[in-house]
Write a structure and sequence with these properties.
With 338 residues, this protein is an alpha/beta fold. It has 14 helices and twelve strands. The structure holds flavin mononucleotide.
């Protein structure tokens, strides 16, 4: 059942067509025709507590536990290693239940080696023992705890009760051996949820905002009893979530994610408060439609264009990029001013 669902997530993601809006296009950054920099002066590296990345990007959690996932995770891990970026594996619950499914997760550590920056992934409702087992399975540098109530509620076989999730996150943070990142999967965080996480002592948030991969649509395409198309527009847009999180805390480590497909979107997500950005669906599309070479070329272009935009904004390094002045326009401005 879980294996079928994992495959359906990939197949249905590729069929989704609802055009959400991250609101990142409402961020305006000035072009600087006098940058006084060369492209080779641009430094995109970032230092994390768990090591250094050559570029502020995480290939975000997607899959594991199926034969197809072995190949996908191997290819994604090769790309992460090649470009010196981080990678999160998909939910490991499947391999906690059946150890034979662990190979599709372990391959990521095998490919990326001991230097690789790899995140484990489990539900925020999982037990401490299972989260620790997921970390140990891949010798993870950190663990993502995913929050996906919207997805569960539209799945016929999904959870209906999320009581105790905050207390569980708190317990996991105290007891597991790796840093914890709390993540949404595409509906983002608003002011009240970010405040709850800060109160719990969470220091790392993966925004997973609305405007990219849409799990209400993905689950709807699995042909349940109800039609959920009227809910596809639900969620906190990525740009709104990042700004809210940064306004509430200068110290949070923010992974800007949800609908990051282009270098322009990534640059905007960084300027409004992200420490790094993450991407799932877009890289998966290139990999599934064009194979490894296509995903490789996509990432190469994405990173080159990110550097181009750093140069055109006069940003020598990621700290300078993150402190660029910017203006907020349109619907994003309306939402923030309300
Ligand atoms: C096919 C697919 C499977 C996913 N599976 C997981 C998962 O197992 N665990 C998780 O935390 N997020 C999962 N996600 C969510 C992503 O990690 C990410 O938060 C979300 O897709 C938003 O980013 P995007 O718009 O760049 O795709 C999945 C996404 C996709 C496209």
């Amino acid at each position: 059942m879980r294996e079928e669902r994992k495959l359906a997530h990939i197949e249905n993601y590729l069929k989704t067509c609802y055009a959400g809006n991250t609101l990142l296009s409402d961020i305006f950054i000035e072009h600087d025709p006098l940058p006084d920099l060369g492209i080779d002066d641009i430094n995109t590296s970032v230092n994390l507590t768990s090591g250094r990345l050559e570029f502020p990007l995480l290939i975000n959690a997607m899959t594991g536990g199926t034969d197809m996932a072995v190949n996908i995770n191997e290819d994604l891990a090769k790309l992460a290693k090649k470009y010196g970026i981080a990678m999160a594996v998909g939910s490991q619950a499947i391999a906690i239940m059946d150890k034979k499914d662990a190979e599709s997760f372990k391959i990521v550590r095998e490919v990326m080696g001991s230097e690789g920056n790899i995140l484990a992934n489990m539900s925020a409702l999982a037990s401490v023992e299972d989260v620790q087992a997921a970390i140990d399975m891949i010798d993870a540098n950190g663990v993502q705890l995913h929050l996906n109530p919207a997805q569960e509620l539209v799945m016929e076989e999904g959870d209906r009760d999320f009581k105790g999730v905050c207390a569980n996150i708190e317990k996991i943070m105290k007891e597991v051996s790796a840093p914890v990142i709390v993540k949404e999967v595409g509906f983002g965080f608003g002011e009240s949820s970010i405040k709850k996480l800060i109160k719990l002592g969470v220091s790392d948030i993966d925004i997973g905002g609305a405007g990219g991969t849409n799990f209400i649509e993905i689950e709807d395409l699995r042909m349940g009893k109800y039609d959920y198309s009227d809910l596809y527009c639900w969620g906190n847009p990525t740009a709104y979530s990042i700004i809210k999180a940064r306004d509430l805390s200068k110290d949070l480590f923010i992974i800007g994610s949800g609908g990051i497909r282009t270098s322009g979107e990534a640059i905007r997500a960084m300027v409004i408060g992200s420490n790094i950005v993450a991407m799932s669906g877009e890289i998966l599309s290139y990999l599934m439609h064009g194979g490894y070479e296509s995903a490789d070329l996509f990432l190469e272009q994405f990173m080159y264009k990110f550097k181009v935009l750093m140069l055109l904004t006069g940003s020598r390094n990621i700290d300078e990029l993150r402190s660029l002045p910017h203006k907020i326009t349109g619907r994003l401005k309306d939402l923030l001013n309300e």
